[in-house]
Write a structure and sequence with these properties.
The chain is built from 10 helices and 5 strands.
């Protein structure tokens, strides 16, 4: 199948939205915490984040990582948090402010080229909530949203990619998939998709690589 028939599946957190790691100073201000309180930096400093390294080594899941960080941060303000509570308390007034400008531009570029665009997420509604999702303008641009909050099939299970491709209406070999977790990228490649690892430290380069894969 030719490149003009290719579609795009994007992960949400980290790819479309900025990571919580990048928002630490804002989160501290919103929570009334001293600057420098939140020290865990995940992919920006794996050596300084033991829990992140445990996640990368598959000793814990990504959901486990964020559940711990939510509980830990909630305790700093005297509250019992899950991830949904953490995101809501650190979001500020406009959730659209946390969408990467490069992601927004890339989605517009891809749609302008008549490619189909969708989201394949493990925990979109679980972490963000339906009310926040309804306020996210970028979701209105999507041809499909496949969320394991509802399907209960998490990447890198091959069935997750099959669901994403089916929702997009394209076979795996015609679908470009972008994710910031290497295990999910590896799973996508094993499932036959054209998979790109998104570097949260260099979004521009990662989107350029995806654009090249889509022949944009």
């Amino acid at each position: 199948m030719t490149t003009r028939h290719r579609g795009l599946l994007l992960d949400f957190g980290g790819v479309i939205s900025v990571t919580l790691f990048e928002r630490h100073r804002l989160s501290e201000r919103l929570l009334g915490l001293p600057k420098g309180t939140l020290l865990w930096r995940g992919p920006f400093d794996p050596a300084g984040d033991d829990l992140w390294r445990d996640m990368l080594a598959d000793r814990i899941s990504e959901r486990d990582y964020w559940a711990f960080r939510a509980q830990e941060t909630g305790r700093r303000v005297g509250e019992d948090w899950d991830m949904l509570a953490m995101i809501r308390r650190t979001m500020g007034d406009d959730p659209n402010a946390h969408i990467r400008p490069q992601a927004r531009d890339f989605v517009f570029l891809t749609k302008a080229a008549s490619r189909r665009v969708g989201i394949l997420s493990n925990e979109l509604e679980l972490f963000y909530g339906a009310d926040t999702m309804a306020r996210l303008d970028i979701l209105k641009l999507m041809d499909c949203v496949v969320d394991a909050t509802h399907t209960r099939i998490l990447k890198p299970d091959p069935r997750a990619y099959a669901l994403g491709c089916a929702a997009l209406g394209l076979p795996p070999e015609s679908t470009v998939f972008v994710d910031d977790q290497q295990r999910n990228v590896d799973g996508a490649r094993a499932a036959g998709l054209i998979a790109i690892h998104f570097d949260v430290a260099d979004p521009a380069r990662s989107f350029a690589e995806a654009a090249d894969a889509l022949d944009l």
